Amino acid sequence: MEQYTDDERVEDLKKWWQENGVSIIVGIVLGVVVIFGWRYWVSHRDTRAEQASLAYDAFIEAVEKPDAGQVRQRGQKLLADFPNSTYAALATLQLAKLAVDNGDQATAIQQLQWVIDHAKLAELQDIARLRLVRVLFAAGQLAEAEKLLARVNTASLTTEREELQGDLALAGNDPAKARTAYAAALATGGASPLLRIKLDNLATPAANTVITAPAPPPAESATATVPPPAPAAASEVPAETPPAAVSETPAKAPEAAPDDDAPAAPIEPASPVPPASGPPS
Fold first, then answer.
1. What pTM did the predictor assign?
2. Mean pLDDT across the stretch 235-245?
């Protein structure tokens, strides 16, 4: 085997470097740029997310105060500075609610549609769809509301979707479909008392649950015979009053007028009257 000399090895290295040296240098430079660029991007992303979070906190503070103008101002600033952030979608949902509370349905529809088109999370998009369905339902646009409701697919929103489906069916004079939707909403874990009331109002009464009203009592005849009064209780016979006691003093005979010519006759004393016997003991 032929042995390479040192001069030949040096010549081979030079030749290899001329062929591959530029690629190696470029690769190293690109690697360094990628590493530092990635770190810069992560740092920039975290900084932007922190700034968006602070802007959203300021927006929520404005929402808690009764100053609608400040809410709109901070919300618009958040959308302008961080349009691609999740905080922008959350703020827009709040702005849409504020518009609905103020009766501005047109603005609410635009803002909810913006969330549907720009939100990064599918759950936020479906939340916006449900709220938009309610707005359209309140405006009487039932057909558009049903089409939009059919696009809600988030599992955690199934109860709200089925309840809204029942409301739309009931508004469309389809109580059977509404009953089925309300039952499905309850089966998925809906525990709202209002939902239970809606379903109970559509329940078909069973034959054994129908209660017949009792017949009214017959009216009393005006010529009804009045029963005779009960005989009065016999009054107690008063006890016999005892006779008055007879005086024991003998009665005196009337004295005769004195006659001057006739001699005075002797007067005989009257026989005493025996005392009357008292009542028996």
1. 0.62
2. 42
